[in-house]
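Q: I have 122 residues here and want to know how they pack in 3D. Can you give me a structure?
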Amino acid sequence: MSETKSVKEFFCTQTGGVVLTAIVYAVTLLLMSFFGWLSNYLPEDGTFMYVVGVIGIILVIVWTVLGWKALSMIQPQIFLIMPIAGWIAYFVIKGFLSMLLGIFIAPYQIAKMIRNKLINGL
């Protein structure tokens, strides 16, 4: 029991936060690599390929949401007056950038949420 508590206390420190973030990044990279590798060797009509696709879609949605929040934090808080085509282009570009940034931001945010839960739980 005390060993579990010492691990929790370690992850609550600054160094532990860095280690936890690195672990979450490594797990994310391994999952992406595994699913990419797996998609090359599975038959395309199998139900397992469907499950892999659903997991991939869930990951992309999570990355997009967290990337969107990060982009919204660094954008100026002004309202632009644009035509409809401008707004469509704005949301398409922001959505694409959100997916790209989300790949890097999501593991950090997930580690931050885990660390906050550990800190509040102690």
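Q: Anything worth noting?
A: Residues 2-121 form one domain. The mean pLDDT is 83.
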